[in-house]
Amino acid sequence: MSKLSLSAVSLDITVFVCGAVVMIFEITGSRVLSPFLGASTYVWTSLIGVILGSLSLGYYLGGRLADKWPDVKILAGAIFIAAGFISLTVLSKELVLAGIETAPVGIELRSVLASLILFAPASVCLGFVTPYCVRLKMASVEDSGRTVGRLYALSTVGSIFGTFAAGFFLIPFVGSIRTLYALSLVLILLSIFLVPFTISRLSIGVLTVFVLSMVANEAGTLLLLDQNGLHDIDTEYSRVQVFNAADPKTGRPIRALATDPYFTQSAMFLDGDEPVFDYSRYYHLVRHVKPEFEKVLVIGGAGYSSAKIDVVEIDEGMTEIAREYFDLVDDARINIFHEDARTYLRRTRSGEYDAIMMDAFGSLFSVPYQLTTIEAVREIRRNLRDDGVVIFNLGSAITGEASHFLQAEMATYRAAFPQVYLFKVKSEYADDRLQNLIIVASASSM
């Protein structure tokens, strides 16, 4: 193979690999941010916007530098530095995000600031790649269109590959943080592929940060596991943290599960069987409305031990976590369906259930939107028997700016059910405070 053709192939490989790295970096970034900032639309918008802006800056700067110094060593250097910045993201994420999490500004600004600090530097460096490869590969003006089109097509195909690789394999099976290690290593090897490795302050610095990031993260994981039983688990739908703590109300030991920093989704006492959360007790209202209930549907993976129940939990990883850490055992009375609750409700026959328990949350105290519409509530009503009841746990304020969701949901349920009631879980909370609330709706008198 001639020197020219080898160079051409090398540049093709470079734009493909870097296109894949950008998308994997972006998708994995949401898992890095979620334990501190959640995984809301604000976080995703900030992350995508910052990375796109950083790539644009990289395209601009890379194009100018490529015209001035069309040298493959500079291209390899930019890729090598990007590897260092990704390693630095792993090394500094806890410190950076812990500081930003408590900043006295809104979630929008905190999300943008975190994305800028952790993801912009590497993205700018990766933005250098395509314009630099175009300049290095372009032999003449006559074939410039074909050259540019080919390289941008390869970069886009790489991004498509990276998207599927991140979502279908890397995050669920490798984990988000180890995926970032892999990205750093791939970029280091790619830069060496372009230009043979030489010892310099830059190479020593990048490799030092890479090794430190791996050692610090793995050592920190083992230390947290030893101290409080923290397990950091990536599922197909979320990043889950399981940890041991003390119940703030009683001081008793609990095991808790959280997918974002704003509230704990599930918990159990380690020294008893009673529920940790006050809202769980409201599910016993079904005994008042329908004392002889026989079949219950639980949406959100909660448990109910005194009847035949169907549980719809979208995330199969959550069920495995419940089995391993929360004493879930196989029971003939419990049927678990791993699918979106909306599709399950649509395919279930009418009048199937005596009661439906709604305990599904996304991020920032939000209920998955597809379960909040009038169409979804009508499906819930259709799935209930004539004297059935739905008990819905949600987070909202009762009055003020944070109450709009509650007011909308109350109106939605009143459009489908003649009897709708609202209960405060914590009577001492002010009405304008974000809190757990329970909506109870029935087609018959209660």
List keywords for this structure.
single chain, 446 residues, Growth Hormone, Chain: A, Rossmann fold, seven-stranded mixed beta sheet, four-stranded antiparallel beta sheet, 13 helices, elongated
Polypeptide structure, described:
The protein is α/β, with parallel strands linked by helices and 446 residues long. The chain folds into two domains: 3-228, Up-down Bundle (Growth Hormone, Chain: A); 266-442, 3-Layer(aba) Sandwich (Rossmann fold), CATH 3.40.50.150. Helix content is 55%, strand content 15%. The chain contains 13 helices and eleven strands. The strands form two sheets. The protein has a seven-stranded mixed beta sheet with strand order 7-6-5-8-9-11-10. β2 (239-246) and β3 (253-258) form a beta hairpin. α1 (3-37) runs parallel beside α3 (72-101) and α1 runs antiparallel to α5. The radius of gyration is 26 Å and the shape is elongated.
Provide the fold topology.
Elements: H1 3-37, H2 41-68, H3 72-101, H4 107-127, H5 129-137, H6 144-174, H7 176-194, H8 201-228, E1 231-234, E2 239-246, E3 253-258, E4 266-269, H9 285-289, E5 295-299, E6 308-312, H10 316-325, E7 334-337, H11 341-347, E8 353-358, H12 374-383, E9 384-396, H13 404-416, E10 419-424, E11 435-442
Parallel strand pairs: 5-6, 5-8, 6-7, 8-9
Antiparallel strand pairs: 1-2, 2-3, 3-4, 9-11, 10-11
Helix pairs in contact: 1-2, 1-3, 1-4, 1-5, 1-6, 1-7, 2-4, 2-5, 3-4, 3-5, 3-7, 3-8, 5-6, 6-7, 7-8, 12-13
Q: What is the β-strand count? A: 11
The oligomeric state is single chain
End-to-end CA span: 83 Å
Morphology call: elongated
Strand/helix succession: HHHHHHHHEEEEHEEHEHEHEHEE
Q: Structural class from helices and strands? A: alpha/beta
Main beta sheet strand tally, sense and closure: 7 strands, mixed
CATH class category label of the largest domain: Mainly Alpha
Percent in helix: 55-70%
What would the CATH topology of the largest domain be? Answer: Growth Hormone, Chain: A
Mean pLDDT: 84
Number of domains: 2
| Beta-strand percentage range | 15-25%
Number of helices: 13
The neighbouring-strand order within the major sheet is 7-6-5-8-9-11-10
Q: C-alpha Rg, in Å?
A: 26 Å
User: Residue ranges: pLDDT <50 for 5 or more in a row?
Assistant: 1-6, 302-306
The CATH architecture of the largest domain can be named as: Up-down Bundle
